[in-house]
User: Fold Amino acid transporter from Streptomyces gelaticus.
Amino acid sequence: MKNESTTPDNGDQAPQAAMRKSIGVVDGIVLAASSTAATSSIGIGLGLMAAIVGLHLPAIMLLAFLPVLGIAGGYGRLNRVEPNAGSSYQWVGRIFSPWLGFLTGWVNVVGTIVFMAYTTTVTGSAIIQLLGQATLHSIGGLTLDPDSTFQSTLLGMAVLVAAALVAVRGLDLAARLQKYLLIFEYGVLLAFCGYGLFAGDQPFSLQWFNPFDIPSAAALAQGMMLAVFCYWGFESVFSVGEEVGDPRDASRGGFIALTVMLLLFLLAGTAFQRVLPLDELADNGAQGLAYFGTKLAEQPLAALPLIALMFSAVASLQASVIPTARGMYAMGRDGVLGPVWTRLHPKHKTPAVGTLLITAIALALAALALVIPTVNDLIFAAVNAIGIVVALYYALTAAAAAVHFRHLLRTSPLEALRAVVGPVLGALTLLATGGYLAWTFYRSTDHFEVSADNGWFALLVPVLMIGSGLLAAAWARWHHRSPYFLPARCPSVGGEPSTAV
Assistant:
């Protein structure tokens, strides 16, 4: 197999310098766990899901885990054959079509940038909440409001810039920082949620784990998208495959992180429902974890969950910019984007220019999002949009794995369960869920307005993400004449001849 990380075939361009192999399996686990941001998902996502699926948080998290696990099998197997900074962008492009590959990479990048934009606001909101618990409610006569998109975004922007600068310094430093943040976050989550299981006064019910009790098909689809979004990010470890000493370490890191996420979500969902009645859980939304902490402890201990949420948001910002910059690096290396994305830091061998450019784009998008006045509404609008595009590119990657490894159905049926059957079932589930959710958005209203609860607005955002990807692909194909789109220059994964057209 040709080593794409060191001698990429990119037309007449000179080979790019290789990124440094600086991380192992533990660092991979840390990166994947930071990207999925369990504490942030628990802190702001459980309340949103409770408003949709009621007291079935454990059920929806378990249900969503199954297709994601199947898709993770496809990612892991493809990464073992060819670790690549572009991951799904390269694999789908070589197995199916460069157009689908480009679209996969594009919606992944755009979705992550949207995530970074709203997580910037979430980070600022957590800081303001923490200041409020420290009895600092105003600065210079300005009343601090954690649900103000404007105030939260300004604070979060400063944090995003700092996180990007650390990412430029190198994966080893970023992984060490995130490791300490994760240890604190998980320690706080385990302590408070474990205590909440026994201290809560809401009666426990096994029906909480029964997905057949979810109110409606629309609630099931919406809840599934939100839950899949919570697991989203495990695949970030595969985008640093060229910087991992052993490709199998990336797969191990992704699977371990996913399993830990499941256990944390089940624990937290059960604990939240033991402590908080449904109306309180749903009403607190983005401030759910902070409210949960105040129900279980007095200050200053009650502030610990909020500090954990803030750390999680910071880590997820950094863990988002890292794989996104590497995805853009791979696309620039193939000539579908400009050469600026391939410039590595002379000392740290990281895509430094790309990292800073992505940060600037996320900052600009965060500023545009100020038209949505409250943090809760911003989160809801962003999560719905990202959930649909995540379902799309997960499904494309899983289908690519199934097609490429279909011979295992004859030669190794047991291995085929992981590389073919699991990915296919996961892809079909997510496509059906995302399609049904898009249909419910379309039918939910007869007019358009910029509002998080307007179905046409919720549908417009993923449509723009996908449509812009098709336009960008056309520009790269016919204006830049990128060799990525030429069948002769696009060998399949593993170095076999490609059938892409």
